[in-house]
Amino acid sequence: MLRSMIDHNGAPARRNLLAKILREQTVERQAELVEMLRKRGHPATQSSVSRDLRDLGVAKRGRRYVLADEAVRSMSDFSTLRQFVSSRVSAGANLTVLKTKIGSAQSVAVAIDAAAWPEVAGTISGDDTIFIATRGARDQRRLGERLLAIFGI
Predict the structure, then answer these.
(1) What does 28-64 look like in DSSP terms, one character per residue?
(2) Across all residues in the chain, what is the average pLDDT?
(3) pTM for the full model?
(4) What structural domains and CATH numbers belong to the chain?
């Protein structure tokens, strides 16, 4: 019960503080954020911080966490992302799977989402894998052509 209260009652203030911390400091691990929040009077758990990062749209760029707007600004030129994408495979008529270097998938997915390509219905990213959903086979072909032109894959 107490953990639930910690996770939900202070979420807006905690998220504002998280965003401030990420703008001002380099943070590589969620445990660092938990400790920084605790020192500033905002008790948190790793799972509450994880949810907050997701809800704030935080991405991992290299080894550090960045706010989504910063990640999109710094990666709006896809040429900077080319080095992180290693392969592409179609998985049915509506799904393309991209493999990236470890820790790069979320940043690449954020940039793809921000580009708002009409053929992309949505993305899901892990640590080194991105699932890109399309509305059908035609959109998947268009996506394949775009990925070939941008990433050479």
Answers:
(1) --HHHHHHHHHHTT----HHHHHHHHHHHT-EEETTE
(2) 85
(3) 0.54
(4) 2-56 (1.10.10), 78-151 (3.30.1360.40)
